[in-house]
Specification:
19% helix, 2 helices, globular, 131 residues
Length: 131
Amino acid sequence: MPDHAHYLDTFENPQPGHDYTVRLQIQEFTCLCPLTGQPDFARFLVEYVPDRLCVELKSLKLYMSSFRDEGLFHEAITNQILSDFAALLKPRFLRVTADFNIRGGICTQVAVEHRKEGWQCAGPVVLPGET
């Protein structure tokens, strides 16, 4: 598989002392079916809690479009994106969810996660009056 990760660039986390979530929605992802060569279309949601680095958005656009001519199974491409992000950003937490359009009457959704060793998510905050 070609090295797609070289497209990704980063910048320093402006608030490294805070746990906050970055949600990136990629609405127009395309790749090729590895069996038929026909185009596959998907929406991706990349959610991460940054540690030292954040992903730069123009590079993300180039990275995601670099898969356009690749013939990969849905599971492989989703895991590749997780692996590339985890290796580059070394985030506290990362989740990649792929929602592929219908093919042969079947919708495929693939979700994969990565956690930095030792990092634990704080529990949800319940304010007075909330249930």
